[in-house]
Amino acid sequence: MSRPVTLVVVGALFAMGCVIPVFPNHEPPPNTPALVLGRGSTPQDGIVQVGNRDTLIANGQSEFTIEVRVVDPDVDQPLVGLVYVNADFSGESARPIPVIPQQTVPLNDGDDRTERLLEVAVPLTALPEGCHRVTFTVNEEYFGFPPAPPEPEVPDMVEEGRGSWLVAVTSNMLPMVDVTQCPGGMPEEM
Question: How many CB atoms neighbour CB 16 within 10 A?
Answer without folding.
Answer: 8
